[in-house]
Write a structure and sequence with these properties.
It is a single chain. This protein has 802 residues and is α/β, with parallel strands linked by helices. A hairpin with a 5-residue loop joins strand 1 and strand 2.
C-alpha cells in the first residue's frame, strides 16, 4: 500500500477549491462588540453612529436579487455588519463555527427600548419556558405583560434555495428601520432573532457553480456535490440527533438561550408546484406535538395565506405535502414553539424561468392548477424570477411576524401553557423513562457508546436527566445504581417521549383500496433502537433518589481495533456526481472513527488497478439509476456526466477477484448483484408498492454472533430499513448469512407494508468471488450518523479479511 495515487480524503480533496474559500471571522461592528459566545447574552449600548442604515445594494454595490447574480457568504456577513453598525435596533452575534470553520451569526432586531431590556426579556423567557419557576398566577400574568414575543427566523440551510439569505438581508433592513405600521409593531412587540444562513459552508460553492455554468446549457442546474460537507440535504434532518456543528450551534446558542415562541424556517420547493406553502400541516402530526401548537400553526398559517392573497399574490397554499411527523426537522415542536415552515417555488438558481399554468404538477394534497380550499387563487403562469422568490419570502415573513406580534400576550400565554401541560404530564406518557446501565456505576465511566450518545442528545435538547443514587425495583425488575432516569414531568418531556418511545406511523393509502401513500420523510425516529440501548417506561408513584446529570457520560473512545488509524487498511468510498447524502454520512462516520479512506469518482474507478490503492471499496446506498446512468450531459458538463459503465464494472470485478472486499448498502445492492453477476437474488425486486414498502423504519435482526463479521454484535439487534433488500441464495452457493431479518412482527418502529416478504430472510450476506469477497447489506448500517446499533457490522466489513 505505497505510492498511492489517490490521497487520503480531506475537504479540499472532496470538493473543488472554492469550497474551502472562507472568511475566518467577522469584524466587530463600529461601537459594538461582536460576542464570541451566546452562553451569556449581554446588552450593550446602542450605536451612536449617525450614518443612514444601508440597504443591501448600498453595501454590496449591486442589487442582490438581480437576475443571474448570487451573493457569497462574505457579502452576507458584510451587509449584516454594516447594518448593525448603523442602527441601534440591530445587534450581531457569533453563535459558533460551521463544519468548515465559517462564522455562524444571528442578528437580534428589536426596538431601542427592548434592546436595552434584553437581559430582562431573556429572564422572562426562561421563566415562561419552565413554569416550575413561576410562583403564582399573578407572577405569570406579570411576566406575560412585561415579556415580548421571541421569534426565530432561519434561512439558507439548503444553499441551492438561494433566495433565503437574500430575503434575510432585505427583511433585516425592513425590520430595523421601516416606519411602516407592521414593522414598527414588530419592533415594539417582538425580539426577532434572524439567522441568515444555517449552512454558510454551502453558499460560496453554489455561487461558484452557478457562475461557472452561466451562459452554458447547464445554467441553473444543481451542483454535482453536496452543499453541506457531510449531510447535504439531510442537514435539515439533524434537529433531534445533533450530529452536526450547525444544528448544535443553533440549538445551544439560540433555542436554549432565548426559547423562542415562534420558529419561521424559510425554504424553497420545486419550481412546478404552488408558489408558496405555509402550514396548516398535512397529516400525520406526531402524537407528542402539543395540540395547542398544532392549532396555533393552523391559525397563524391560514392568516398568513389570507394576508398574502390580499396583497395580490397568487398560488399561496396551505395543508399540502408537508407533515409534522418527525422531530428530525422540527425542534420547536417539542420545545413549546410554533414552527412555521414556508416553501417558495424555485427558479433555476438565480436564472428566471417561464412556465405555463399547465406546466404545474400536483403534489400530495394539492393540484396547483386548480382552485381549492387550501389553494384559493392559483398562479396563472408566466415569468418567475429571483425577485419573485424573495418578495414572496419577505411577504410571508412580515405577515407571520406581524400577526403574532399583534397578539403578543396570547402567544406568550400559549407558550407557558404548553410548558405547564408538559410539567403536569400527559395521560399517554409514563411517569419516567429508565436507561439502564449494565451494573452499579454512579460516576459515568465506561457506559456504552449508545448510552453516552443518548444522554448527550437528551441534554442538548434541554431534557433533564438524572442518575439513581441506589438500586431500585419497578414491576419486578431491579435497576442498578447509576441508572439514568428521565422524569416525564418537565418542560421538554415531549421531546423525550418522541425519541424514546417506538413510533406507530398511521397506515395511509393514496385512495381507498389504493397503494400506500408515500410519507414526506421517514416514519421512525426511536433513538434507543438506533443506538442499541434499552429505554424502559416506568409507571411508579415514588421517584427513586437520583442526582442531576451535569455533564455528559464518557463512552468508549471512538477507536476501532484493526481499523482506526490502521495503515494496512485503506477504504475507497464511491462518490457519484449525483451528490449522494448516504456517501456524505459515510464520510462523516469514517472521519469520526479515524478510518483511512479516499473518495473514488467515476474517473478514479475508470483508471483501474484499484487494488494498488485500496483494500476495501464501499458503495453507499445510491439509487440504481444514479449508479448506472449518473447525471445526463444535458444537466451538467461532460466531466460530471454518466455513471458506472462496462469498463468501470470490469475494474470493480478485477478488484474483487484479486483479493479486495466490495461492500454495498441498501439501494446499491441490486446494482452490485447484477454488475458482479453474484449468485444471489433480492426477493423484493419487482414487487409493487402495495406488496412491499419500507419508507424508513426500524426492523429486528437476528445476528450470527459466531461470524467474524458480527464481532461485537448481540444476537438480537435493530437495523434501519429504507427501501432495502432481502436475499434468496441458491443451494450450494459459497455464501455466509451474517444476519437475518427477525420473525414477524419485524417492524419495531415506524411503518412497513408487506413485512412478510422479509421476515426471516437474509439481511446481510458475505459472498466469495475469486480471491476476494462481496458484503451486501440489505439495510443502511450508518443511517444519517444515527444507527450506532449496526456500526460494528460495517466496521468489521471494512477490516482485512481474516
Amino acid at each position: 500500500m505505497t505510492n498511492r495515487r489517490i490521497a487520503l480524503s480531506t475537504p479540499s480533496a472532496i470538493y473543488p477549491a472554492y469550497w474551502m474559500t472562507e472568511r475566518v471571522c467577522i469584524r466587530p461592528a463600529a461601537g459594538k462588540a461582536v460576542l464570541l459566545s451566546l452562553l451569556l447574552w449581554t446588552a450593550y449600548p446602542a450605536s451612536a453612529s449617525a450614518q443612514q442604515p444601508p440597504r443591501p445594494a448600498d453595501v454590496l454595490g449591486f442589487d442582490p436579487v438581480a437576475e443571474t447574480r448570487l451573493v457569497g457568504w462574505t457579502d452576507v456577513l458584510t451587509y449584516f455588519e454594516a447594518l448593525a453598525a448603523a442602527t441601534p435596533t440591530v445587534r450581531l452575534d457569533t453563535i459558533g463555527r460551521s463544519t468548515l470553520d465559517r462564522a455562524m451569526i444571528v442578528a437580534t432586531i428589536t426596538s431601542e427600548e427592548n434592546m436595552g431590556r434584553l437581559n430582562e426579556l431573556r429572564r422572562i423567557q426562561a421563566n415562561l419556558a419552565d413554569p416550575r419557576l413561576i410562583r403564582s398566577a399573578e407572577e405569570r400574568e406579570e411576566l406575560i405583560h412585561r415579556g415580548r414575543l421571541v421569534a426565530l427566523i432561519t434561512t439558507g440551510i439548503h444553499p441551492t434555495e438561494v433566495g433565503g439569505p437574500l430575503a434575510a438581508m432585505r427583511l433585516a433592513y425592513r425590520l430595523a428601520v421601516s416606519p411602516a405600521p407592521a414593522e414598527s409593531l414588530i419592533r415594539d412587540q417582538a425580539v426577532v432573532l434572524l439567522v441568515p444562513s444555517l449552512n454558510p459552508d454551502g453558499i460560496d460553492p453554489v455561487k461558484a457553480w452557478y457562475e461557472e455554468t452561466l451562459s452554458t446549457p447547464w445554467e441553473g442546474s444543481d451542483p454535482p456535490f453536496l452543499y453541506h460537507h457531510y449531510a447535504g440535504h439531510d442537514i435539515n434532518r439533524d434537529w433531534y440527533a445533533f450530529t452536526q456543528k450547525e444544528t448544535r450551534a443553533v440549538v445551544e446558542r439560540v433555542h436554549q438561550v432565548w426559547h423562542p415562541q415562534l420558529d419561521h424556517d424559510i425554504h424553497q420547493q420545486e419550481a412546478t408546484g404552488a408558489r408558496f406553502f405555509v402550514p396548516p400541516w398535512r397529516d400525520p402530526v406526531e402524537p407528542n406535538v402539543d395540540p395547542l401548537l398544532t392549532a396555533a400553526a393552523t391559525s397563524l398559517g391560514t392568516r398568513v395565506q389570507w394576508s398574502m392573497l390580499d396583497e395580490g399574490r397568487t398560488g399561496v397554499s396551505v395543508a399540502a405535502r408537508y407533515d409534522a411527523w418527525s422531530p428530525s426537522r422540527a425542534y420547536a415542536h417539542y420545545h413549546a414553539g410554533v414552527r412555521i415552515l414556508s416553501e417558495t417555488a424555485s427558479a433555476r438558481l438565480a436564472s428566471p424561468i417561464e412556465l405555463n399554468a399547465h406546466d404545474l404538477t400536483p403534489t400530495p394534497g394539492l393540484d396547483p392548477q386548480v382552485a381549492s380550499w387550501n389553494h384559493p387563487i392559483p398562479w396563472p403562469g408566466g415569468r418567475w424570477t429571483l425577485e419573485d422568490i424573495v418578495s414572496y419570502m419577505e411577504s410571508g415573513a412580515i405577515a407571520t411576524l406581524g400577526i403574532a406580534a399583534s397578539e403578543r400576550e396570547t402567544w406568550l400565554r400559549n407558550f407557558e401553557q404548553v410548558g405547564s401541560r408538559a410539567v403536569a404530564g400527559w395521560p399517554s406518557w409514563p411517569e419516567a423513562w429508565a436507561i439502564p446501565v449494565m451494573s452499579d456505576n454512579l460516576h459515568g465511566e465506561n457506559v456504552s457508546s449508545g448510552i453516552a450518545e443518548l444522554v448527550r442528545i437528551l441534554r442538548i435538547a434541554g431534557v433533564e436527566v438524572r442518575r439513581t443514587l441506589e438500586a431500585f425495583r419497578s414491576e419486578d425488575v431491579t435497576y442498578p445504581t447509576g441508572t439514568y432516569l428521565v422524569d416525564m414531568h418537565q418542560p421538554y418531556a415531549a421531546f423525550a417521549q418522541a425519541v424514546l418511545a417506538p413510533q406507530e406511523y398511521p397506515a395511509r393509502l393514496e385512495f381507498p383500496g389504493g397503494p400506500p401513500e408515500v410519507p414526506y420523510d421517514v416514519t421512525a425516529h426511536n433513538l434507543p433502537l438506533l443506538l442499541g440501548v434499552d429505554a424502559v417506561p416506568l409507571f411508579f408513584e415514588q421517584m427513586p433518589a437520583a442526582a442531576p446529570v451535569t455533564q455528559n457520560p464518557t463512552g468508549p473512545p471512538r477507536v476501532i481495533e484493526g481499523l482506526s488509524n490502521e495503515p494496512a487498511v485503506m477504504v475507497g468510498l464511491y462518490r457519484p456526481w449525483t451528490s449522494s447524502v448516504d456517501e456524505g454520512w459515510t464520510r462523516w462516520l469514517f472521519d469520526n472513527y479515524s478510518v483511512a479512506y479516499g473518495s473514488l469518482s467515476n474517473a478514479d474507478i475508470g483508471r483501474g488497478d484499484l487494488a494498488r490503492d485500496f483494500t476495501t471499496i464501499v458503495i453507499p446506498s445510491i439509487a440504481e439509476a444514479d449508479l448506472r446512468d449518473g447525471r445526463s450531459e444535458a444537466s451538467v458538463p461532460p466531466e460530471y456526466a454518466g455513471g458506472l459503465g462496462e469498463s468501470h464494472l470490469e475494474h470493480l470485478q478485477q478488484f474483487v477477484d484479486s483479493g479486495g472486499t466490495l461492500v454495498a448498502f441498501g439501494e446499491s445492492v441490486g446494482f452490485v448483484i447484477e454488475a458482479l453477476e453474484l449468485p444471489v437474488e433480492d426477493v423484493l425486486v419487482g414487487l409493487t408498492r402495495s406488496q412491499f414498502f419500507a419508507p424508513g423504519a426500524l426492523v429486528g435482526l437476528r445476528v450470527d454472533t459466531a461470524a467474524s463479521l458480527a464481532a461485537g454484535m448481540p444476537f438480537d439487534a435493530t437495523a434501519w430499513l429504507e427501501g432495502g433488500s432481502a436475499f434468496r441464495v441458491p443451494a450450494g452457493t459459497p455464501m455466509k448469512v451474517i444476519a437475518r431479518y427477525g420473525s414477524r412482527p419485524v417492524t419495531r418502529s415506524g411503518w412497513i407494508v408487506g413485512e412478510s416478504w422479509i421476515a426471516g430472510r437474509p439481511a446481510m450476506v458475505e459472498l466469495s468471488r475469486g480471491r476476494g469477497r462481496v458484503i451486501l447489506f440489505g439495510f443502511r448500517p450508518q443511517y444519517r450518523g444515527q444507527s450506532m446499533a449496526t456500526y460494528p457490522l460495517l466496521f468489521n466489513a471494512l477490516k482485512r479479511s481474516p
